[in-house]
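Notebook, p. 212. Picked up where the previous page left off. The plan for this session was modest: take the two constructs that came back from the sequencing core last week, fold each one, and keep the raw output in the notebook itself so nobody has to go hunting through shared drives later. Recording the first one now, exactly as returned: residue sequence, then the structure token string.
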Amino acid sequence: MTDHDSERQHEEHLKGGSSASGIGAYLLHRAKPHLPPWICVGGLGLAGGGANLMWAGSAGGAVGLTLASVALTGATWWAGKSTGQQRRLHSAITVAAGSAWLTGAALAGPLTGVMPHAFAMGGPVMALSWNIRMVMRRSPDSTGQSSDKGLLEKVGLARTRIGTPKVEANKVTLPYALPAGEATNDDMAKALPRIASALDVPTTAVRMRPDPDSARRGTVTIVPVDMLKTVTWWPGPSNPGGSIAEPLVIGIYDDGRQLELTLPQAIHLLIMGATGAGKTEGAMDVLAEVLTRRDVAVWLSDPKRGQDLGEAFPACDWVVDTPDGSGILIEAVKAAIPARQKWLGDHSYRSWCPEAAEVQNSTDHTCRPDRTACGCPGIAYLLAWFEEAANTLRAVDDDAFTGIAQEARSAGISLIVSMQRASGYQISTDTRASLPAAMCFGVDERDAGFALPTEVLEAGANPGAWGNKRPGYCYLVSAGVDEDLWSTPSRTYRNDPVALDWVARHFAPFRMGIDPVTAAAAAGVAGQLYTGRDRPGQQAEAQDAPEDDDVTTSLVDPEDAGIDPEKDLPEPDDGDDFALVPPDTRPELGTDEAREVIERLLEQWECEGRMVVGPKDFLAHSQEIGRKPTWIKNQVRDMRAAGRLVETSETGRYRIAPALTPA
């Protein structure tokens, strides 16, 4: 029965009939709640008389009853530890007095000496004390109110009931029930800053979690002491050599629990934070954990060219540092999705799992029609990381991530988009919606709504209160993380490039590297930009390679073998500064010859890793091509129609579609 129902019944009793029978019924009804203590006193007197018949003058009975009285009193005191101090003391005194009289009555007799007087005076006193406690505990004016009436009155929730608090180390959790029909959980959310003010704690120290099955119930959590002020350095890999499907430990919550991120569950992650808010160190924590796992490969776009994450470059399968390179990486991810989905489907996987990264020696996961083990190499989980993604989005379509984000999950691909401000001016609403997980550091208050879901902000999350004054403080909203932790402040570990470099080098033998399926898809889009990349360990091998004069000699053109590099060049003769064929008299090349020149240019740019070009790049070589500008522009149009050039989001810029090259 609710407090509202009991109050309604009380009003009905007060308004009952005024006849003699009505008055008698009312008095009897009102007396019933107060009868139990008197019944207990009467039962105690009868028990004393019965005990006297059994144990009068018995030494063993005296010892047993005394021990029983002490044990019962102790048990009452122990059982009352979860109640208030007054109730605990009152209960223990009542039990001690009753058991003492029962022991005396059993041994000497209930009517012997002072025993009847003690019963006649002590019994009613004890019963009345409990009646008075019952009357004082009920006050019609306070029915339905919190036990801390003053605090809730201050914040406009005077009729809210507070349940039994759960007290933990540096955290108090209070169940609440707002008055029915008068307030909702939205009113509690609006009152959180005022509660923090009344308790004199930061606004981020008070948060709530609504009951999903009720519009007026939930819990309020109060963390009075900020335990995140103490810097915690990265303790090292949480699961070295483990799978990427297991949680990454990247920090701690304000109640001491570990801050964990599971990428396959998070799917795609937005990392956001103002300058100085600790976003880079949080990124280093994530990368440091990722690079210790055995079954993951990383593609990294870093417009800052290694200024912060450079130590991780040797451990990444592919790194690009230009806007055009980022656009090609996005196209490579798009191409990798169907290739990886086909591989997973051929091997009877509905989605990527750690077993998909192993050599396929099981008949349950084979691509052969006869269902014998195929022995195909597995595919690694792919992490596509876009650092300072605002630069990338300025160079490509602002919806560049939307399509791949919607399809990448089933292919075992996660996107991490890191930027300072995920505002509507820099990232579209569709793109933001396609990044279901968010790791939000301190931001401008105006950007908080774009970083975190509304329900998390209403529950008390407030990254705008930190700005860049609390480096490393963050909120993590992700599948796989308890919802009550979404609004719980946390802090990432302090990290540095030295640790990232150690991880990149030390765990290189444990990482499986890129798989042939993903590599082929990337090479088919990026060509030399991918196949000519610096692969993990390649730089170290180049540094360890012995110097060999024969290698240098083999790079000399045979025609120049007799030239002395130390000898001065001869003086120029008359006419050396004139072109052999004057530009205005050079004949136009034939159609086939000009096309061959264009194809050689494309191959040259592809070898240089220059995969995005436009008509102006071809026109710069018009003399070499030997045709008029109009003809060259028409050739660009024909190459677009033939698929040799692919449109990009930037007008007048096209991506070269290379022939498939080995990775």
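Okay, moving on. Second construct, recorded in the same format:
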Amino acid sequence: MSTPSKPIALPVTAVTCLEDRAHVERTAVLDLEAGVQRLRLGPVGASAVDRTLHAELTADHPATVLDVRIVRDWTPRGPRPPAEDDSALRRHVHALEEERDGLEQRVERLRTRLDLLGRLATDLLREIGEGAGAGETDGVRWNRELDRVDAERDAYGEELRAAQARLAALATEIGEALQGMSLAGSEPAELVGHVELTVESSAAGPARLRLSHLTPCALWRPAYRAVLDGDRLTLETDAVVWQRTGEDWSGVRLTLSTARSALATDPPRLGEDRLTLEDRSPAERRTVDVELREEEIGDLGPAPVLGLPGVDDGGEARVLHAPAPVSVPADGRAHRVPLSSFTTAAGREYACSPELSPLVTEVVRCDNLSGHALLAGPVDLVRGSGFSGRGTLEFTAPGAPVELAFGSRDDHRVVRCADESRDVSGLTQRTVVTRTVTLHLSRFSAPGERDERVVVVRERVPVSEVSAVEVRLRRESCSPAPDAVDAEGIVRWDVPLAPGGRRTVTLVYEVSAKGRVVGV
């Protein structure tokens, strides 16, 4: 059973891009003959995973896939079209060769001249010897001639050494340029894969082939673009796709998934957890040890998974679809694929948490009307004046509120001062810790501003988990009285600030602990 030498085209028609790989689907219509035959399909990316290769045949007559495999071989790459660098390199080599030829001729002339000067010096010394033997004394002329010959020999000898050094440097430079021309004119062999498909058909006729496999070197991440226009917010969801699988994806149906197929092969890690019992000492029975612990308030979305960076999908595999066919070249660069977009009314507030930051931030809130979950990712913030910065969007379920920070306000300033006093009762030995937090807010306004701005200020008070410790907010001492206090101990004020205005906010609360409590 022979294999046709000319392969049948097997283009990519659909791709499911995962967090760190891609599931590629290919389709083609085959003209089968009756009996068993072997077909050569491709080319396909050489990085395809062999064990994930799966082929299906659909035809009006019985047709079965007997075997499918990927065969790889080294194929020389075709010549590339001439580029501007090639001609410039050739001109550079030509100039170097012309300079080398001129230097070689100059070296020959210098060697000939030095040879003649050597003969002249020999003749001059012979003349001096013969004249001195004959009783002639012309020392002035002899000294002058010897000095002239020696000076010329030194000068031409130095020129010869410089020319020879330049010739050696030219030889190295010409060799590197020729090597560059060789690399620019030829490409190394490329590893190309083809699919060998063995099928059995009961009758001759067309059949539709669907072949799928996994391939590495492909991934995607979510990205967003938020445009704020007055009280309207437009949120665009994109997928940033990278792929270097060895073949371009042209006009494919793109699906984005957060499924992690590699997790099924990793067994769960089990650690030893020892529990021991011991009797408390009398001192431990008489005291209650407490400590101050800070916890992040849980919001919609999962806790981060250590050791598994990537797409935050809320603990459930999410699937998103591109609305139109897309093309992603195999160049390893980032390509943005639009997924969805919605425009809705947005609420805006100027928020400040002085314990965390003295800045007043403009926060925009709206509901997620995209119809799908918004995965965690970067978001480009755009105002009417243009791009204003980049923020982060947390995981948001469909219909849940979306919160975006559009940067801080430079015309606001907040100064926070905290004071603490401690009092111990003599009879009950009860400890009362009183904390006073003073916030000074100011607004610097440009000439002509008349509007009043409301700044939402949030502070926190401790929340006790044991009955031996009580936390009480002294509303009568707070100035002004808080507008709201939630169950997590977050105290909120809505502070109006006129242009150039200043306000002072005071928070007073006390922590009361029984005498047997330590650690307060």
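Notes on construct two before I forget. The mean pLDDT is 85.
Flagging for discussion at group meeting.
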